[in-house]
Amino acid sequence: LNTSRMQNLFHDCSVPIKCITIDEAHCVSEWGHDFRPDYLEIASFRRQFPNAVCLALTATATHQVQSDIIQNLHMKNPEVKTASFNRENIFLEVKPKKNALNQVLECLKEHQKECGIIYCFSRKQVDLLTEELQQRGYSVLNYHAGLSDVQRSKNQDLFIKDKVRIMVATVAFGMGINKPNVRYVIHYDMPKSLEEYYQEIGRAGRDGLPSQAILFYSAGDV
Known about the structure:
The chain contains eight helices and eight strands.
């Protein structure tokens, strides 16, 4: 938004700016990770168009996140609309982590030839699990911030186009992913927060069909 090319376009009198819509608006809150600095600049962009309506959208709208969005986007007495958090087509399951690899393999047997995402806490765990599954003949790739931009983009593209069925990833994967046929999301490790968990399971069942979210936990997660 701050590049001269875009600024020239936005301030062209033939292109009136009447509405500014921010998707994934929770990124202006503490959940934002790498995207947060850029999202916080949106407030200064809004000031350039004081008469434009502003619409902020997110699936992770806890009271704290709502407050942060209102404050960081400089909204004054906004109308807040909140839908249900219940994703009726996703079956949520929490299991004690006993032998995580075997538990994952059991789940993959139930979802043969279906697409899924497995989230791990660390890059090392992502790589280890990816290698283990590849050796067992599964169609799987990895995704985390330690890979080059080119490799990450390539792996994501192969997954979106159904050339690869399973993606093992850290939280770096999934922002803006709109793949409709993800049938399961497995949390190999405990997520950092409830907001993070909710964002990640929401990548399953975008087509409205029955899907599964499995979370493995252990005492070590504490």
